[in-house]
């Protein structure tokens, strides 16, 4: 007899027949489909608790040797309150550092605790899109091989003015070199940020940016006053393809974290916002463990550059071989050539450029190591060329891809 519909009633019937004593327990056990041990168990439960003792008891273990203790739960909740942006992996790392790895629960257990307490929300599902492959940016195997720089999208402060945070990051160690709130993206406000970073940390080999202001212009080689200064300091400028922020993925990921910390909500004034940016920079560099760095902090990995910054170098003219002709760019961006004027770039005003003849009537125009284009002495009717003031004179060909 299977106990499927009313197990408590059938158990009561079994116990009643056992108490009556007319049918042997062996036969009753076979009739009800249970063992003799089970039959005596139900009889003992009935004697102890009546009909309530015949109901199914909970199979939940009475002890949990591996369960999280109240002290551990309290410590994790306190850590979450101290670092509200940390997920389970980072919380476990901080807990293990402060309380010992032996007592640290698994990250999955911490995640379950946070969800049960309502301290975390599942991330929204995102649609995956196919991205065309792009050339990979240069590698940065050591600190200061490549810095990345970008403006975090502007946001309005409490006083209704706008803040444009300029951030500079070491690509290898993720060390946040600068996080400066500015009133705009122009060169006059951005240059002092890089100047102070160069003075404190030295010069990088390369700086990677997007094609926005003040890092890229419309003239030859995309030069701007900022990148001209970098070239004179011996810093290579690397631009990511337009519309592909994934080429600066580490910087973009840092911006997402920065926005959560300092812009939700923003401060009332720019001075107060800068204090928030300074706090975030200390937290990001000194406290926040990075999974890509095997839970190390950027401060533990970053070292200043051995290339020290000499401001005088940024004011010196580039050097050219003896056979290269030199021309000083005029204030409006033109150079004199063969009795005419050739427009080069306003970013190169007052700078010294070089002209090297590479073929009969064809001259290579350079600024230091940067190729600006070519000058052709004959009249060429090719679309897309930058023409000089005179109708029949030298022309500037677009810069060749590098």
How would you describe this structure to a colleague?
With about 400 residues, this protein is of the alpha+beta class. The chain has 4 domains: about 5-55; about 70-115; about 145-300, Nucleotidyltransferase, domain 5 (2-Layer Sandwich), CATH 3.30.420; about 315-395, no CATH class. About 30% of the residues lie in helices and about 15% in strands. It contains 11 helices and 13 strands. It is rod-shaped and about 130 Å long. Residues about 130-135 and about 380-400 have low confidence and may be disordered.
Principal-axis shape equals rod-shaped
Structure summary, number of beta strands: 13
Tell me the series of helices and strands, N- to C-terminal: HHHHHHEEEEHEHEHHHEEEEEEE
**Mean model confidence by pLDDT:** 84
Poorly predicted tracts of residues: 129-135, 379-402
Strand content: 15-25%
- What profile does the largest beta sheet have? 6 strands, mixed
Q: Ends: how far apart?
A: 86 Å
The CATH topology annotation of the largest domain reads as Nucleotidyltransferase, domain 5
Number of helices: 11
Could you write a compact summary of the structure shown?
The chain has 402 residues and is of the alpha+beta class.
Quick tags:
five-stranded antiparallel sheet, 402 residues, six-stranded mixed sheet, 11 helices, 32% helix, 13 strands, 4 domains, alpha+beta, Nucleotidyltransferase, domain 5, disordered C terminus
Set out the fold topology.
Blueprint: H1 7-20, H2 25-32, H3 36-49, H4 70-82, H5 88-99, H6 107-116, E1 146-151, E2 155-156, E3 162-170, E4 176-182, H7 187-201, E5 206-209, H8 225-232, E6 236-239, H9 249-262, H10 270-287, H11 298-301, E7 325-328, E8 334-337, E9 340-343, E10 352-359, E11 362-367, E12 370-376, E13 395-396
Parallel strand pairs: 1-5, 5-6
Antiparallel strand pairs: 1-3, 2-3, 3-4, 7-10, 8-9, 10-11, 11-12, 12-13
């Amino acid at each position: 007899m299977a106990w499927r519909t009313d197990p408590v009633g059938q158990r009561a019937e079994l116990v009643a027949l056992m108490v009556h004593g007319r049918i042997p327990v062996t036969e009753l056990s076979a009739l009800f489909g249970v063992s003799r041990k089970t039959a005596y168990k139900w009889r003992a439960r009935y004697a102890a608790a009546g009909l309530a003792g015949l109901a199914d008891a909970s199979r939940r273990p009475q002890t949990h040797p591996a369960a999280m203790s109240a002290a551990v739960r309290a410590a994790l909740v306190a850590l979450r309150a101290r670092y509200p942006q940390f997920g389970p992996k980072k919380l476990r790392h901080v807990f293990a550092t402060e309380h010992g790895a032996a007592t640290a629960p698994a990250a999955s257990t911490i995640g379950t605790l946070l969800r049960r307490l309502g301290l975390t929300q599942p991330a929204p599902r995102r649609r995956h899109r196919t991205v065309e492959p792009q050339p990979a940016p240069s590698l940065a195997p050591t600190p200061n091989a490549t810095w990345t720089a970008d403006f975090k999208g502007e946001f309005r402060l409490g006083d209704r003015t706008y803040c444009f945070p300029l951030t500079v990051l070491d690509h290898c160690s993720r060390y946040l070199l600068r996080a400066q709130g500015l009133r705009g993206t122009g060169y006059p406000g951005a240059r002092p940020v890089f100047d102070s970073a160069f003075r404190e940390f030295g010069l990088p080999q390369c700086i990677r940016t997007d094609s926005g202001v003040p890092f890229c212009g419309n003239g030859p080689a995309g030069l701007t006053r900022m990148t001209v200064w970098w070239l004179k300091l011996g810093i290579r400028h690397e631009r990511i393809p337009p519309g592909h922020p994934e080429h600066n993925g580490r910087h973009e990921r840092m911006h997402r974290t920065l926005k959560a910390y300092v812009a939700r909500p923003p401060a009332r004034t720019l001075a107060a916002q800068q204090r928030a940016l300074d706090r975030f920079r200390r937290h990001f560099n000194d406290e926040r463990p990075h999974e890509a760095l095997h839970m190390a902090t950027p401060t533990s990995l970053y070292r200043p550059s051995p290339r020290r910054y000499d401001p005088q170098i940024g004011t010196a003219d580039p050097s050219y071989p003896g056979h290269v002709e030199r021309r000083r760019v005029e204030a409006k961006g033109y150079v004199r050539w063969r009795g005419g004027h050739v427009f080069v770039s306003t970013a190169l005003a007052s700078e010294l450029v070089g002209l090297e003849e590479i073929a009969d009537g064809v001259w290579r125009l350079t600024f230091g190591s940067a190729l600006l284009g070519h000058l052709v002495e004959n009249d060429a009717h090719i679309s897309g060329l930058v023409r000089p003031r005179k109708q029949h004179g030298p022309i500037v060909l677009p810069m060749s891809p590098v």
